[in-house]
Amino acid sequence: MANSTRAAAEGDPPRPAGDGTGADAGVGVRPGATSGAAGCTRVDTGDGAGAGTGVAAGARGDLGTSSSPDAESAAEPDADPGSAPEPTTTPAPEPPTSTTPAPIAESGTSTRTPRPGPVVEVGGAPSRAGAGGGAVRLVGLDLARGLAVFGMYAAHLGPEPELGEPSGFLLELAHGRSSALFAVLAGVTLVFLAGRQPPSDARDGRRAALRIAIRALVLLAFGSVLTASGTKVEVILAYYGLYFLLALPFVRLTSRALAALAVGWALVGPQLWYMAQQVFWDSALERGIAAHDPLAHYAEGEGLTRLLVTGNYPALAWMPFVLAGMAVGRLDLRAPRVRARLAVLGPALAAFGYGASWLALQVPAVGDRAGMPHGWWADTDEWPEDLNPGLLLLAAPHSETTLSVVANTGVALTVVAAALTAMDLLPRLRPAAVPVIAVGSMSLSSYVFHIVGIRLLHIDIEGDDLSIGLLLGFIAAVSLSAYAWSRFFRRGPLEFVLHHLSLLGRRRR
Questions:
Q1: CA–CA gap between residue 224 and residue 297 (Å, rounded)
Q2: Which is more confident, 208 or 250?
């Protein structure tokens, strides 16, 4: 896994001075948009506002973070964009520039040196356009987020998977893997938030770190409020907040360093998690810590011990997803060579993780001890009451093992590479994908939408209320709502709140 991950990291982009965006800034989708380089969507910049319709040019993604590299870091400290409705008039024509993609260097990154262009709205924050005076947004990342949202919906609203049925197979694919995809994409946009260029001074670095810390605390608060509401869904937002805080020391590392760190954590973290489970799971120690943990007191037991060790998305085992996403975020995702490497690396990791687990479970001493014949890829078997070493060789979602982390990281990278490439090579797919992209561009709001909907409609997610019809109804509702909202606003409703709270960090002197 280490060598494969390093291979993908060879696409580390150069860091030219000039525009502060790392040549990856981007904007949202609008009908009839002209294709830019490598699967991005070009917008008109004649008015400096990123005008356009469809998915708003400033729509935010990944649980409140931007899809646009340096969308935040390139902004003026006191900028406060995003509150005005998205213009619906016909945008001014683009300045005559060539849309031919720049040549790709052997490392997989663009050799083009950006020249200053007009300031446009990118991901909801001002950012300087790249060469040719235009800016692009990697809408493939929003597409991947939208698919992750739908996967979470399937895990919570779809019927229990029956592996003998085609629908059961598809539903099982969503379990655990969609949340892992979310975590990888969170890592990608953490890098975008921190800025792909080194900070100009220590003050800029502190401001970027403070913005991320504020977002982390807000996500912790959102998650705690939803958990305290009594929902039966294991809300992931508080875990995300902790992931952001734990990732802060690493946001300035190179892609190679982040990939190596992800590999090391994937090898060690799950083993530490297994040992910590033996100590904390349903123990007097865990209850004693929770009794003095204000977060656990407010969020019905969802305190730091659960967020780190005993919960459904424990940071001790899930941080490799975030670190792998950060390594990907340091790459030039517009470069075809980089995408090709991700398209090879992803399936290879998935095949290794699931294949190694399957082989291990064929050994009677291991398979009998684990007691989960489908545990090499699915969690439909009854989990044993006791934790035993055989479980460390599973690759099922939420088994929190090294093989599970490797396999699910591979699935996430495959989806990201496929989404980015599809937006580039299949232009006819874009109109059909616009509602999914809209959902992904406001994934925080879309995620909370189904949590609140389950609560308001009194849906019993552990009973007989779940069905394919219910799942499709929620998907249709959130898609239409997100698309309609994006026609008039640059950010989703919760993304708007999160952005303006994070401005406290941007305005710090």
A1: 10
A2: 250
pLDDT tens, 406-458?
A: 999 999 999 999 999 999 898 889 999 999 999 999 999 999 999 999 999 99
For residues 135-148, give the mean pLDDT. Answer: 86
Nearest to 350 by CA among 324, 317, 312, 331: 324
Cα angle for residues 130, 13, 261 (degrees, 5° grid): 135
Tens digit of pLDDT for each residue in 263-276? Answer: 999 999 999 999 99
- For 203, the enclosing helix (H) or strand (E) is helix 202-228
Whether 387 and 168 have beta carbons less than 8 Å apart is answered as: no
Distances (CA, A) of 260 to 101, 254, 271, 291: 31, 10, 18, 37
Return the amino acid letter for 115.
Answer: R
Contact 63, 494 (CB under 8 A): no
Nearest to 227 by CA among 219, 293, 243: 219
Average pLDDT over residues 22-47: 38
- State the pLDDT confidence band at 200, using cuts at 50, 70 and 90: low
Residue 85, strand partner residues: 489
| H or E element at residue 127 | strand 125-128
Does residue 104 contact residue 335 with C-beta atoms inside 8 Å? Answer: yes
Q: With a threshold of 0.90, does the pTM exceed it?
A: no
What is Dmax (Cα atoms) for the chain? 69
Are β-strands 125-128 and 34-35 bridged in parallel, bridged antiparallel, or unpaired? Answer: unpaired
CB atoms within 10 A of CB 77: 13
| Cα gap 355→365, rounded to integer Å | 18
Rounded alpha-carbon distances, angstroms, from residue 409 to 4, 141, 253: 12, 16, 20
Q: What is the mean pLDDT of residues 180-186?
A: 96
Q: Which residues contact 330 (CB under 8 A, 6 or more apart)?
A: 9, 12, 13, 191, 196, 254, 255, 258
- Give the span between the Cα atoms of 309 and 401, in whole angstroms: 13
Alpha carbons 53 and 51: distance in angstroms, whole number = 7
CA–CA separation, 251 and 206 (whole Å): 12
